[in-house]
Amino acid sequence: LSKELMGPWNKDEISTTDAIFVQRDLKLVQGFMPHFFRLFRTTVKQVDFSDVQRARFIINDWVERHTKGMISDLLGEGAMDQLTLLLLVNALYFNGQWKTPFSKSGTHHRVFHKSDGSTISVPMMAQTNKFNYTEFLTPDGHYYDILELPYHGETLSMFIAAPYEKQVPLSALTNILSAKLI
Asked: Taking every annotated instance into account, which residue ranges of this chain make up the domain Serpin (predicted)?
């Protein structure tokens, strides 16, 4: 899959990167750093987790640079503390082209229902076409509409799951997701 996604024939922009951030004075098992480099092609980065705010800034800055600014605050307040010794981070940047592009004229402000029950107005894309669609029932009785939006090349797709009822938490679906289920 990685070869398919990263090949020069692919028009999508995809990059992945990994990093391990360790407490500066943490003694690692001999050979760990070269082994990690062989696996992930990146180095171990040492930070001082006792200065939580500075460590958060360093890691969030790394993530922001490796996602072309799309993720700027991965680690929020309280995500780590002074007892943190190690953090493994994987960043994925993807900018793909839809198999069936959306027209700008089909984008309108609509009401979006947030998980806390509030609503906001956001631009939403729309189009009329034939897409793979199914209905899904979770083991605890929640129904979802599932829609597949393929990217060009048929290798990748985005799946959108919308619950029938507004008050159903996203966790009702994410708690049971697996590669086999998808």
From this structure: 1-181
Structure-block tokens of residue 157 = 């797709």
* Beta bridge partners of residue 137, listed in sequence order: 143
Read off the pTM: 0.67
Look-up of token digits 């090349």? 153
In whole angstroms, what is the distance from residue 171 CA to residue 48 CA? Answer: 34
**Residues forming CATH 3.30.497.10 domain(s) in the chain:** 9-95
> Closest Cα to residue 20, out of 76, 91, 92, 94?
91
pLDDT tens digits, one per residue of 12-63: 777 777 888 999 998 888 888 788 788 877 778 899 999 999 999 999 999 9
* Among the four given CATH numbers 3.40.50.10160, 3.30.497.10, 3.30.70.240, 3.40.50.300, the one describing domain 9-95: 3.30.497.10
- Indicate the residue type of 25: D
